[in-house]
Specification:
The protein is of the alpha/beta class. The chain is built from 27 helices and 18 strands. α14 crosses α15 and α24 packs parallel to α25.
Length: 697
């Protein structure tokens, strides 16, 4: 929303202005003694306390709010006209390990709304290795591209002068740059007409993979060579990439993503400056990539905080306001996307994309709902593309300039994120910069700590994933997607490249024109990398990537396998004792608790006595029985119920719905035969995994 004006005299007469203290008093009365901070304040993994109400007082002392859109420090965006002068690029990533498959999908999507090409070569290509050398990396995380012939197939019938093309080129961008420029030349497109990016990002690749096929110094040499050439020949191309998304997708938080992205950018400016590239030229060719997380307002603030912080960084390198502007790409994150009930992913990406647009990004990838299933089909890609259209045409996100500006919540959290990220960035600087911090394992440790906190929250269902750890659909039919046989692909690709690889070319590492000529003559990625990169390696502990729902997905997979083997799902028996109001709350909780692990709840009848409930539980044959009643009735019920079951079928797992506060009571229930307790603080995933194993699943 825009800045809120002071109320007019007429408004003041109609509505008496209430003070925050009055509101707080009224709310605390409604809470009836429950702690305000515990009930109404949301604490994020970034350490930000989101308040239930923000007022003008929260804006006091914030310096960035005085600037208009398009004015430094650019929290409100780089343009004073926002998206009214032109919307963000629809830069959808397209899966497919084979160039022909990529091209087929790309051409279809370009005819249906996509206006930008996002090409990620596979790990072998990004590492400067041919398919017959790096068979384990062929088709991994991208398209297999080994020479100009492959790139020609991937970009067949694409007018390179008509739309931006973005290529993630690995640590050493020169091999892919030479092939791309050579292919553009064959299409009759001069380098000066190329737009988009072909970026080197050695620190991003190092953090993600844990190793580089060359040294950082050699990679910086190559990026400097490529940037100098592009400055003269392809001025519209970005040449330096900063992948901040990996930090969030490895389980980190928004503060870490901001701080480490900024630290990466700073390291690149320093390294390239030492190699004769001016800071202004470097910054103008930087392209930052961020993942968009699920916290709607926090993510809006994140992009605003980044521009604010980067303006400060640029100023430190002696650049003026105009020179500080960089390109910002966003992608909806993979961390919270699920294989189970995957259509829920459509809802997740819609709110995430909305955050990114309100945050003022330049280009955006919105994940198809089946992205984490291993591949997307035409329908899922279309649905994802349509979200762009919904945001621009139906939500009218392009009409207001900086629609989030003036929101006290957004402005306050922008400031909080910026302060926290700047402090963390300075901490990384004290460790010698990001490269040194990576070698030390320092930043990995920070991310791992937050990832563990998130994992614990998911496991205990404090952080919900609809359809996965909350409200699962046990009758859903899995969506099958064709999986590429990477072993067969690597074998076929190795044969292809061996059959057409030319004699080793001759070219100086700093002579881009000679490299382009060699690429046009058929030189492969591996041959070009051999000319441009030092034959050495850089190794660190890589980031660990694990989606939030993987643990619960594994439980369901185990339960499904059990059902296939035995003909029935693992069962629990709900032993409900007493009238409805006595047993229903915990019976409902128990059914939901076990269903996320693939268990089927049985036992529709309620019982008046513990003896009757125990008899029915034994007769059900369920390997797990759950006693559902109240804390007040448990002392009388538990000894009879648990004792009867253990006497008849000692292997049966007896579970109590609830957790007594008194340890002595817990111990007495254990002694009576209770094996487990389920409650809102329980680690659901660990307990269900234990029980599945215990019953032989």
């Amino acid at each position: 929303m825009s800045k809120n004006p002071e109320p007019s005299p007429a408004q003041s007469l109609d509505f008496a202005r209430a003070a925050y203290t009055q509101w707080r008093t009224a709310v605390e009365a409604d809470l009836q003694g429950a702690p305000f901070d515990k009930k109404l304040v949301t604490r994020t993994f970034e350490g930000v306390a989101l308040q239930p109400l923000y007022t003008r007082a929260d804006e006091a002392g914030l310096t960035h709010t005085a600037a208009q859109p398009g004015a430094a420090p650019f929290a409100r965006g780089y343009s004073n006209s926002g998206y009214t002068a032109g919307t963000w690029e629809i830069s959808q990533e397209i899966g497919g390990a084979r160039a022909l498959d990529f091209n087929c999908a790309l051409l279809s999507d370009l005819m249906r709304g996509q206006n930008s090409v996002a090409l990620t070569p596979d790990r072998a290509a990004r590492n400067g290795q041919d398919p017959d050398v790096a068979s384990a990396s062929v088709g991994v995380d991208g398209v297999s591209v080994a020479d100009a012939t492959d790139l020609a197939a991937a970009l067949k019938d694409v007018d390179l002068s008509a739309l931006p093309v973005h290529v993630r080129a690995g640590a050493n961008p020169l091999p892919l740059a030479a092939i791309y420029i050579a292919q553009a030349g064959k299409k009759g497109t001069a380098p000066a007409k190329l737009t988009g990016s072909l970026t080197g990002d050695p620190l991003g690749e190092l953090a993600e993979q844990g190793s580089l096929p060359t040294t950082l110094a050699s990679a910086y040499d190559s990026i400097a060579t490529w940037t100098k050439w592009a400055e003269k020949n392809a001025p519209a191309l970005a040449t330096v990439g900063v992948n901040g998304a990996s930090w969030l997708e490895a389980g980190g938080n928004a503060v870490q993503e901001l701080a480490f992205a900024i630290a990466t950018g700073v390291e690149y400016i320093r390294a390239l400056s030492e190699r004769g590239v001016q800071p202004a030229s470097i910054v103008s060719r930087l392209r930052f990539t961020f993942a968009v997380g699920p916290q709607f307002y926090l993510e809006i603030s994140k992009f605003r905080a980044f521009r604010l912080l980067w303006s400060r960084v640029a100023q430190g390198f002696g650049l003026n306001a105009e020179q500080s502007k960089v390109r910002i790409h966003a992608r909806t994150n993979r961390w919270n996307k699920t294989v189970l009930d995957p259509h829920v992913n459509m809802l997740r990406v819609t709110t995430e994309a909305f955050s990114a647009v309100l945050g003022g990004i330049d280009s955006l990838h919105i994940s198809p709902f089946d992205e984490v299933l291993g591949g997307s089909d035409e329908i899922s890609r279309r649905i994802a593309r349509n979200v762009h259209t919904l945001l621009s045409e139906e939500f009218h996100a392009i009409a207001p300039v900086d629609p989030a500006g003036g929101s006290w919540l957004v402005e306050k959290t922008t400031d909080e994120l910026a302060r926290k990220a700047w402090a963390l960035f300075q901490d990384v600087e004290k460790h010698g910069g990001l490269a040194a911090a990576l070698r030390e394992g320092y930043v990995q440790k920070l991310v791992t700590t937050v990832a563990a906190e998130k994992d614990d929250a998911v496991s205990k269902r404090r952080l919900g994933l609809l359809g996965t750890n909350l409200f699962p659909n046990l009758k859903e039919k899995p969506i099958a997607r064709p999986v590429t046989d990477l072993v067969a692909l690597a074998t076929a690709r190795a044969t292809e490249i061996k059959g057409r690889r030319p004699a080793a070319p001759q070219a100086a590492a700093t002579d881009v024109d000679a490299l382009v000529k060699a690429a046009a003559a058929g030189a492969t990625i591996g041959q070009l990398a051999g000319l441009t990169a030092a034959a050495a390696t850089e190794k660190i502990t890589p980031l660990a990537f694990k989606r939030a729902g993987e643990g619960f997905e594994a439980l369901r997979k185990t339960a499904d396998a059990f059902a296939k083997k035995t003909g029935a799902r693992p069962k629990i028996f709900l032993a409900k004792i007493g009238p409805v109001k006595q047993h229903k709350p915990r019976a409902d909780f128990s059914a939901g608790f076990f269903s996320v692990g693939g268990f089927e709840a049985t036992g529709k009848e309620a019982f008046e006595t513990a003896e009757a409930a125990a008899k029915a539980a034994i007769a059900s044959g369920a390997p797990v029985v759950v006693l559902c009643s109240t804390d007040e009735t448990y002392p009388a019920l538990v000894p009879i119920f648990a004792g009867s079951i253990k006497a008849a079928k000692p292997e049966t797992v007896v579970v109590l719905a609830g957790m007594p506060a008194d340890k002595a009571v817990v111990d007495s229930f254990h002694a009576a035969g209770v094996d487990e307790f389920i409650h809102v603080r329980a680690n659901v995933r660990e307990l269900l995994a234990k029980l599945l194993k215990q019953i032989g699943a």
